Amino acid sequence: MSAHSEHMNETAAPRDHACRVLVVDDEDALSDLLSMALRYEGWETRAEGDGTSALRTAREWRPDAVVLDVMLPDMDGLAVLGGLRRALPEVPVLFLTARDAVEDRIAGLTAGGDDYVTKPFSIEELVARLRGLLRRSGALSVRPESVLVVGDLTLDEESHEVARGGSEIELTATEFELLRYLMRNPRRVLSKAQILDRVWSYDFGGRANVVELYVSYLRRKIDAGRQPMIHTRRGAGYLIKAASGEHAGITARAGSLSPSGGLAGEDER
Amino acid sequence: MSAHSEHMNETAAPRDHACRVLVVDDEDALSDLLSMALRYEGWETRAEGDGTSALRTAREWRPDAVVLDVMLPDMDGLAVLGGLRRALPEVPVLFLTARDAVEDRIAGLTAGGDDYVTKPFSIEELVARLRGLLRRSGALSVRPESVLVVGDLTLDEESHEVARGGSEIELTATEFELLRYLMRNPRRVLSKAQILDRVWSYDFGGRANVVELYVSYLRRKIDAGRQPMIHTRRGAGYLIKAASGEHAGITARAGSLSPSGGLAGEDER
DNA sequence: AGGAATTCTCAGCGGATTCACAGGAATCCC
DNA sequence: GGGATTCCTGTGAATCCGCTGAGAATTCCT
Q1: Is B202's CB within 8 Å of A136's CB?
Q2: DSSP class of residue B4?
Q3: Minimal CA–CA distance to A45: which of A122, A124, A138, A134?
Q4: Strand partners, A153
Q5: CA A214, CA A177: separation in Å to the nearest integer?
Q6: B168: distance to nearest CA of chain A, Å?
Q7: pLDDT tens per residue across span B60-80
């Protein structure tokens, strides 16, 4: 909670928030989690638990994007989609679907440019997808470049390419998500708990030790031999920053700067 | 610096101006899907479910193209076509017909340079056909070249010719569509679900495994022995890009330009 | 109809990935 | 220094994912 303070970022953040996101899911725990994460991202949110209210809210509140669970108590997700389209033809939709239903009725959902995420997902993934949708729909005031840059390290969210000093680095899916999270919050300490909550699926039952493991993997690939960029703050967490010797805080998001950094004044656990 | 590239939308939809497309179909699900896909392509759409309203909208809204299901509840496709021609003599029409429709009748309809697609179709196919119609009718402000280029790989959407490094490559229909989709989104990871939604017909019930299969076919024909251009991002999807060693991001649509690839000063890999 | 080309299912292989565990290294505190 | 705490990383097991061969089903061509 804490003051949803506006923290100074290295560059003036062009407020691409103000986006409104409607979350439609009947699991309260999940939609709370999501709302919090999205609000964190700088977006406004509303949550609804059933199709009928969702449609009402959609009409009245006119969100810029919708996160829609395809399994709803009162009406089929597809029916909700139909209503949505009629009310807000342009609004992009991010579907949530159960893992095993994947093959099922996702057909055609992404054809129009919408996207989906299978449960259980990681917040990082969901937010990234949503950001992609908003970017494409033009809802973001400034269309952000898809490349994150910290020092001589770059990460392209569209091609999933990562390179340091020009040479490409191969990462696994988890490594990629972890690095993206770190790079989205350069020079900011992230606790293992935060990382776990953000990068691993919300139902992950494992030990916090995986974070150490994956940081270790990342270091091997990214800091190998060179000036280290990933640093440990014992007892607090990890952070990434341009290697000393680099130009100061060349730590920007190529086009605009993400406010997402927004983890200002976060609390640790 | 160079970083300031104007970024584009997902599908290499070259923002060819806001063409207006009228969709006439009585199946809501399908016309929703279509509207969505076309809007995504950068076009404006209106949907109507019967011939009468379709004609009214055609007269008032004056679309640049019409997608017309020949099976309508109130009037025969032929009658609608007649009305259309009277109202908008020049407008190109893309017919939707059932697979087993009487072929010669359609042949008659499309005599004027119109085109048709049989249900069930893939979004890729429909969009490509429509783009062709618009291109020919001159409705597109910038007439895009019909050749997609990525590295030394070229694909001509009109002649359906594909060549790598000058030597021609024979592809089956599905392989062609898959490659076109990849090439329209160079250097962007496309998930198997996205590919399935876009390249396979909307009613395809099969497993995502076909995508792997067809990627495998494509690789045999395109990457055979040479520097691979089709890459797997395990856990994420596939992407195509110029082989390393090629000229930088010569990854353009000959006429308009496409995403990230383009500009000089990009780093190579 | 007969044969060829194409599409697709199925199943198995093999390597990549994820993760638990545990011992060792670094750091902190008294 | 000594012990406690925290972090790092090698090892190995279970699992997941993608690739591909074989062949059935379908469509296309003549």
Answers
A1: no
A2: G
A3: A134
A4: A150, A164
A5: 10
A6: 28
A7: 999 999 999 988 877 777 788
